[in-house]
């Protein structure tokens, strides 16, 4: 069976790296754990490493987190469906909101459950995903103030996830000003501006985070060490917290060009072939994973001699050339994975999940943070 591995030590290192960065800049942060898809084994690793609040966009995942760690603050990070108000109040300590009627439903449930439900009001800042228009924020806030058992703990925004709009100093400054306007108008204090995500982290290095932006929600950079702003990596962080391993179930020298009339394959594509390879052969291997489990375009063999040729529903075809590494049936092949590859594999019941720990955080120190 193929499996995905999480390296707990490398994840711990990345956590400490980010925690040092945020602490140095007086910023609170929460972990976005939706990538783990509610897997208890991996969530236990995360909870052992962190005492931070955990964010997710799936209520079932927050329910599992509450079961594993009742004291961990859970955050539902998309506008809730109104019909889920009862469960939201039960399993999410905080939720992100944009609809007053939904907040009314949350208020009614919070009263019923004798809880105070915290909310973050999301504001539209150009990405055109969730968020109320900034000009309507004071009126919206005034309506929320009238609702019992609802506490506004922040205003927030989302950038980059839909249309790729990048955060910048000007947008963040405006969001901070919107919060100040509400505070002045209603003689109140809103503790947090949750305006940061993985894509915003590079602005910290460039010292372009305005005063007042004091809360980040981070998933991708924690798990992959990515600089999402530049689609690159952050020096000093691990990019290989996850790896995929699959077993070779066939290895045979075969022609490099298929024979017969070409139609469309499983995914509706008509493959093309290099005519220079007509009459040539190479060693090809099949491993026990396929399109039901992974997106083969988002994984990469760790062995540079291996090339991915293609995939069907449950098999992945590899080009081994002359097989200088002397692979045999029963051997395994490791692959690096990006965010979407891990997300796809985590959602597959056919990919086993394993934990490994190859290094200990006490054996090394966090590297000096550099711009």
TrEMBL record:
One of its GO terms (molecular function) is alanine racemase activity. GO terms for cellular component: cytosol. Signal peptide: none annotated. It holds the Pfam family Ala_racemase_N. InterPro entries: Ala_racemase, Ala_racemase_N, PLP-binding_barrel. The keyword Phosphoprotein does not apply. Residues 6-225 form the Alanine racemase N-terminal domain. Keywords: Isomerase, Pyridoxal phosphate. Its cofactor is pyridoxal 5'-phosphate. CDD domains: PLPDE_III_AR_like_1 (cd06815). PANTHER family: ALANINE RACEMASE, LYSINE RACEMASE. This is Amino acid racemase.
């Amino acid at each position: 069976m193929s499996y995905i591995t999480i390296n707990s030590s490398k994840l711990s290192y990345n956590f400490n790296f980010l925690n040092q960065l945020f602490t140095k800049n007086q910023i609170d942060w929460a972990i976005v754990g939706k990538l783990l898809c509610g897997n208890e084994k991996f969530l236990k690793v995360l909870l052992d490493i962190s005492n931070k609040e955990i964010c997710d966009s799936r209520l079932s995942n927050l329910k599992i987190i509450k079961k594993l760690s009742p004291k961990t603050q859970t955050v539902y990070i998309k506008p809730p469906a109104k019909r889920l108000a009862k469960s939201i109040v039960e399993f999410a300590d905080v939720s992100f909101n944009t609809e007053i009627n939904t907040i009314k439903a949350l208020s009614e449930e919070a009263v019923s459950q004798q809880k105070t439900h915290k909310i973050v009001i999301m504001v539209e800042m150009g990405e055109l995903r969730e968020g109320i228009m900034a000009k309507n924020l004071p009126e919206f806030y005034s309506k929320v103030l009238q609702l019992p058992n609802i506490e506004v703990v922040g205003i927030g925004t989302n950038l980059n996830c839909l249309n790729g709009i990048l955060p910048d100093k000007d947008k963040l400054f405006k969001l901070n000003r919107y919060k100040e306007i509400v505070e002045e108008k209603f003689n109140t204090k809103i503790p947090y501006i949750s305006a940061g995500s993985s894509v915003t982290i590079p602005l910290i290095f460039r010292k372009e985070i305005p005063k007042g932006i004091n809360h980040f929600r981070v998933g991708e950079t924690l798990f992959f060490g990515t600089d999402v702003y530049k689609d690159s990596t952050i020096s000093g962080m691990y990019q290989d917290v996850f790896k995929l391993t699959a077993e070779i179930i066939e290895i045979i020298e075969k022609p490099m060009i298929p024979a017969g009339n070409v139609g469309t394959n499983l995914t509706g594509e008509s493959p093309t072939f290099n005519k220079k390879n007509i009459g040539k052969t190479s060693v090809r291997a099949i491993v026990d994973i396929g399109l039901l489990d992974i997106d083969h375009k988002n994984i990469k063999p760790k062995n540079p001699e291996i090339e991915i040729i293609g995939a069907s529903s449950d098999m992945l075809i590899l080009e081994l050339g002359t097989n200088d590494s002397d692979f045999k049936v029963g051997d395994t092949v490791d692959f690096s994975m990006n965010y979407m590859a891990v997300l796809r594999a985590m959602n597959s019941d056919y990919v086993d999940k394993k934990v490994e720990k190859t290094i200990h955080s006490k054996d090394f120190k966090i590297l000096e943070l550099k711009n």
